[in-house]
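Schema walk-through. Below, the input block comes first and the output block second. Nothing else is stored per chain. Lengths vary across the set, and this one has 249 residues.
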Amino acid sequence: MHPKSEAATPPPLWPEALFGIEVLLLHASPVYYGFGVPAGDDSAVVIIPGFLANDFYLVELYAWLKRIGYQPYFSGIGINADCPNLLIRYRLTETVERARQETGRRVHLIGHSLGGLLARALAADRPRDVASVITLGSPFRGAVVHPRVQPLVESVRRKILDTRRDHVLPQCYTGQCSCSFLGSLRRENIKGVRETAIYSRADGVVDWRYCRTEDPEKDVEVTGTHLGLAFHPEVYRVMADRLAERRPK
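--- output ---
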């Protein structure tokens, strides 16, 4: 069933303020210290921040990946508040190419929220460089956000049009844009790339129905906030298992 045919009353936004509890639970979990999860194989993992955020808040994820045996890389995109097409072409691609060259292996991508959309679009364009994509609360089937978040999206869109007018299309940062980013994102399957879509029905920022592939082997449901998906102990457990499923060559 397509998400639009289901009821889509947005949940309250205020529970997102409780994501700090998930941070505390993460630090209390054995998973955070590498106990009970598969060890990494020293392959590269590029982590990509969400809307209006930069790499800094993913430092917990970065440290954890390093601790369990991977070579983590921050995305290097700066604040995620620019044309996705340009962020991928001029920043994220450079990071992935560097990680691929330094490790000699295909790269894993983990993206939170909008960062997951960037990860999925890049993987669709460069499947030979990407081993797997893990999205955390990423509405890749249609960017439906909470009504109170929409004004922020519109503000970023106006800024992009003002500052990037000669480099973006008129419908940039909308679902109607015809750029290569959205074209790549709309591909249902990425050949040769393992996909995992982690989502929460309690997500207070985006509609969780758009964060699934609708393939039960790829979709994983957890209970928690949208912001907390980057810190959730169960999310970390799932990521460790999925990263270890098939070693890239």
